[in-house]
Specification:
Length: about 140
């Protein structure tokens, strides 16, 4: 697994646990980091994802619901939902990840952590969202 992919995977594990059982994000992040140490730059990258996504969870979810209505949010598997949140955050809030990279990385996470159909699903949803990237970015800025 590529280094930044490992950092995204750690962030995904943290977001998933926080989403499912509402444990304190800082404690979960540190526990995951203790289990799978990362170099400082990758640790900081993972931290920026976790603490970038968490305060925007509702607007990110709203964007997914608005722009991909054929996939009701409450019917999306929790792991896939968190993969989508990370990728959407990278697409619209973090300005250092190219669109193609964010989508490819999300598909890779879906291959590793999701069901057999997750990669295709994540790719399809992100394709829809990527087309609306500017609108979503503006909506997040208002949130």
């Amino acid at each position: 697994m590529k280094p930044r992919t490992r950092a995204r995977a750690l962030a995904l594990q943290v977001l998933y646990e926080v989403d499912m059982v509402n444990h304190p994000p800082g404690e979960v992040f540190q526990a995951r980091l203790n289990e799978a140490p990362l170099p400082d730059d990758l640790s900081e990258f993972a931290r920026s994802i976790v603490f970038g996504v968490l305060p925007l969870t509702q607007p990110l979810d709203q964007s997914i619901a608005n722009y991909a209505p054929e996939w009701p949010l409450d019917q999306i598997a929790a792991i896939d939902r968190n993969i989508l949140r990370i990728a959407l955050w990278e697409l619209v809030a973090a300005n250092d990840t190219p669109m193609k990279v964010a989508i490819n990385e999300a598909v890779e996470l879906a291959k590793s952590y999701g069901s057999d159909s997750a990669p295709r699903f994540v790719n399809g949803v992100l394709g829809s969202l990527a087309e609306r990237r500017q609108e979503i970015r503006q909506a997040l800025q208002k949130a």
